[in-house]
Design brief:
With 340 residues, this protein is of the alpha+beta class. The chain folds into 2 domains: 90 residues; 227 residues, Bira Bifunctional Protein, Domain 2 (BirA Bifunctional Protein, domain 2), CATH 3.30.930.10. The chain contains 11 helices and 10 strands. α1 packs antiparallel against α3, α2 packs antiparallel against α4 and α5 packs across α10. The chain binds adenosine-5'-[phenylalaninyl-phosphate]. Adenosine-5'-[phenylalaninyl-phosphate] (FA5) binds next to β6, β9, β10 and α10.
């Protein structure tokens, strides 16, 4: 009777072990059949009802079944553990080919890049940088540059006035005077910086950058000016780019010339960037007017010089083929991050 029950428990247990699929369920089966209050332990208690002779025989048979069951549980335990581990490894697998987290790298503003490149090129031939105030006196911005009050030339630069005698500087030319006042010639300086005019469209901004160049020495001529600017244009835009000087007028230079370079985009053929002329204006230039040299308290008989002033945005637009000046100030990182 007990042997039959033991066999029945064993068969049921074997069947359940066969169909269990997790180590957790397997543990529960172990407790159910072999635990302290498990079915086999309860059965052992029933051995007491048997005769003295039968008890060890039946006990032995039950122990054999228990041992077999224990082995089956151990085997199953190992099989389940290794398949669970394989599953976990598959699930948690590291894909070493995946790219890591990307870091957004900052980039230099195109105007800073252009400004630095211009300074580098001209530093190679002896020019060094000077700066001046953004709020400038009427004297330095206009009068000392031979632009007297009520002179029509003041209309060329629609001015932001701070008060009767101070303006947001309309160009970097005041630094010419400030430098000549302070330094002994010979002078070779560059003055890059922010300037302000009441002016706004796709090629004009109310706040833009210029770079001024000033050279003061003895017997300076237009040839020196042309040589310096041609060297600069070829270094900045490329050796194939030509420079053209167009007669012009600035009160602080005599003679004066607008500087054009052959269009780097169409190489002088004519395109939208150069309004189909093949040439693009980059700034003004000329020999420093003797009056300006005198205003700066130098002897104009002894010292002559040339000066030029280029628009930085204009140079950047030509170099990078940008057709709207407002892009420089819109803080659009898609645009700004293209310049490295
Ligand atoms: C001047 O400002 C003179 N001071 C330049 C100069 C210096 C002449 C030394 C002679 C000797 P002009 O107003 O043309 O010149 O401006 C020079 C350049 O600044 C222009 O060719 C253009 O490239 C740029 N520019 C002028 N106005 C604007 C503006 N509103 N926005 C962007 N760039 C401008």
């Amino acid at each position: 009777m007990i042997q039959e029950k033991a066999k029945e428990i064993f068969d049921r247990a074997s069947e359940e072990i066969g169909s269990v699929s997790t180590t957790k369920d397997l543990y529960e089966l172990k407790v159910k059949y072999l635990g302290k209050s498990g079915e086999f332990s309860l059965l052992m208690r029933d051995l007491g009802q048997l005769s003295k002779e039968d008890r060890p025989i039946v006990g032995k048979e039950i122990n054999v079944l228990k041992r077999q069951l224990t082995e089956m549980l151990d085997d199953k335990q190992q099989a389940l553990q290794s398949s669970e581990m394989a599953e976990k490894l598959e699930k948690d697998r590291l894909d070493l080919t995946l790219s890591g987290p990307t870091r957004v790298r900052g980039s230099r503003h195109p105007l800073s890049l252009v400004m630095e490149e211009i300074v580098d090129i001209l530093a190679n031939i002896g020019f060094s940088v000077r700066t001046g105030p953004l709020i400038e006196s009427d004297w330095y911005n206009f009068e000392a540059l031979n632009i007297p009050k009520d002179h029509p030339a003041r209309d060329m630069q629609d001015t932001f006035y701070i008060d009767e005698t101070h303006v947001l500087r309309t160009h970097t030319s005041p630094i010419q005077i400030r430098t000549m006042e302070k330094e002994e010639p010979p002078i070779r300086i560059l003055a890059p910086g922010s300037v302000f005019r009441c002016d706004s469209d796709v090629t004009h901004s109310p706040n833009f950058y210029q770079i001024e160049g000033l050279l003061i020495d003895k017997e300076v001529s237009m040839a020196h000016l042309k040589g310096t600017i041609s060297y600069f244009v070829k270094s900045f835009f490329g050796p194939e780019i030509e420079t053209r000087f167009r007669p012009s007028f600035f009160p602080f230079t005599e003679p004066s010339a607008e500087v054009d370079c052959s269009c780097p985009k169409c190489k002088g053929e004519g395109c939208r960037l150069c309004s189909h002329t093949g040439w693009i204006e980059i700034g003004g230039s000329g020999l420093v007017h003797p009056k300006v040299i005198e205003y700066a308290k130098l002897d104009s008989k002894k010292w002559q010089g040339f000066a030029f002033g280029f628009g930085i945005e204009r140079m950047a637009m030509i170099k990078y083929g940008i057709d709207d000046i407002r892009l420089f100030n819109e803080n659009n990182t898609d645009f700004l991050s293209q310049f490295i």
